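Example: Sirohydrochlorin cobaltochelatase.
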Amino acid sequence: MHSFVKAFEAQHPEFLHALGFLEAATPDPTAAGDSLIAQGVSEVIVVPLLLFSAMHAQEDIPQFMATLQQKYPDILFKQTATLGADPATIQVAANRAADSQMEVEQFLLFVHGSKSYPTPEMTVITQKLAEKLGKPVSYAFIYGEPQLISKVEQLMRSTSQIGIIPYFLFDGILVRKWQQELNARLPKLKIVWTHSLQLDEQLFTAIENNLQEVMRS
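Written out as structure tokens, the predicted fold is:
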């Protein structure tokens, strides 16, 4: 994550940058905001490095922003959209499928999910991916419906080989865990996995698009 942000900083020296973490690392977003304001900024734009507008984007980040706003009432705070539905992000996922040289009948987009995930957005993403790949693309969640295991079992009725695209920013513990889980539970099904988005620098375009949208508002 640090190298990804530093590379973005190098391409955009017109902005001051600070990286904040919601969990499991420091600094948190409040401390990151403090560091920017100490450098004299009058406006802070929060860019969620998240794919979807679920709990972190809808609740956690706004809470940090509210804390900062109370602390600095004269500073303008804004938040951009998340990255998952941007055409640049969808293109990275399509590239991952192409890079894997898969010869499969259909693809499954593997997503974290939660009760607040935007299902209509998922439909649009899979439709655009299907157009790029020329093959059917569906989606499934770890948390939420359709659930990953049940969706794979459903697809097994019509195919013996599935290409799975992890729609995550990077290959982490969760992705590896579910790769092992599926391979163990469904050993007769040939599952071909792509890499995740791997914090590809093409995602800079999605960030830039979101920044421009907020700066115009």
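The first strand starts at residue 43 and ends at 46.
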